[in-house]
């Protein structure tokens, strides 16, 4: 939802374009700092009796934490503090493989804007050993050594092997989807696309070695710190924080800054810095206290928020939460509600009426399995009513990973009432009926001329048949920058149903196109690709297309047309050896940065040419390339590419001048 996570507009799944930014690693202490800062309770005051007397023995209930001398009047305030957690996420390389076309519907395309993470473990704030130490010191007695459990100590190798077996046995098959990320702003659009899994696997918590000093090598902590940080004027420090928060997001950057000193904490708490907040992770989520925690956040942290992502949250009382959000977040412009299973049409109507500045909305994964509830937030009645209420305000609408009915009515409502629509994401959309949903693209072109991003990846959609006269009168999408129509083969047919004619109908007059994804479209040939009016394409994904399987095709001509501007190209699983070698040689003449040749029949000489003539190359995927020598069939990144260049330079014979 916001541009700092890279990724889109909604902090994206959808990988489908931006920027998307390098991930920031979080440690356990930073998790504790985050929950202390966002959900900080009043300090707990211990009763004198609990210090001088015998420590009380309290059996905590399930899901609660054991406390020492807790004041009953402060129980409610202290309940806002959530246990520390560690998050882990997993993703895969952005490549298309025929092996995923097994009917699961997850080979080539989804654009989700959320960044998923799983809660691994939580630790109590107090332990019995800590209680004994506090009481022992207060009574003037030495602290007792912690007791050890009796019994044979298990070897570390046995525990690790047992854990790996349990994880592998209980792990379900993950559905692969394509993420698209977009970050529209005043300076342009940032694009990026990658492949990941919908349900990240839970990782095991690993303890760091006690004797490890890898992070401390070469650095000595000074005895006294300089006062330059405390002497900086607050306006200057606030401006610095604002620039970083705009690129990386408020969380966890501003939370980390609060640990430096009191001055930095005061500046980090400035309300105008908290404009773009992503709470889609599990850092501050506690299913039993979500309602109270979020209401507290709205009153104390989110009063000036503009972009808010609440993907994956679950609430007992959704109306109460939405009412608090509409009351306290008066400047809200972008809202992410991905995965809210209980959201209905009345909730959407309330948001549209109570949030006058709301422009961007993410309601993906509301009901990805079935759409039996007519009052669902993504039902035909709800979406058409939302388009009528928001009207010209609506600029971004993400309804991916849902099962919809009445697709023609939804498209007609958007074309009629939303002339300022810029982003429409309908990736991974299934229809209630067995037939594909009709997408009237000419009507959408006429009603939404400002559309910049259109994603129908891996969706059960097809372009509605229209007369030739209506096709000729259509002005197309003159501002379109991204088109994602990647599909998965289901027998001899791919979804969405895109061929040369459909591609021409969508991309007519689209001179500003910068990303084109047609992976898995087995009916798209080189004739339609060459006739695309755009001349500065930067990201091109062709794996699984018909053009990559036919010798004598125009693959070389395509590489020559956009070679001067291409930053990333995907030619995975290409079997036309001659055409592929010629295309790779054409790309070697320009500054390509990312090249995916996984599973292709590329020869060794074109690969050498790319390594020698592309100094900006940062990613080269040669996995499963059967024509290459053994030992080099893998995915190379920055350091690996440098080593591969060096190995080829050593093996090449020296010239007579040398």
From TrEMBL:
Gene3D superfamilies found in the cross-reference section: 1.20.1280.50, Ribonuclease Inhibitor
Skewed-composition ranges (Polar residues): 64-91, 177-186
Domain F-box: from-to ranges: 231-279
A Gene Ontology BP annotation from the UniProt entry: SCF-dependent proteasomal ubiquitin-dependent protein catabolic process
GO-annotated cellular components: SCF ubiquitin ligase complex
Region of interest (Disordered), ranges: 47-220
Biased composition (Low complexity): 159-176
SUPFAM superfamilies to which the protein is assigned, alphabetical: RNI-like
Official protein name in the record: F-box domain-containing protein
Species assigned in the record: Laodelphax striatellus
Lineage: Eukaryota, Metazoa, Ecdysozoa, Arthropoda, Hexapoda
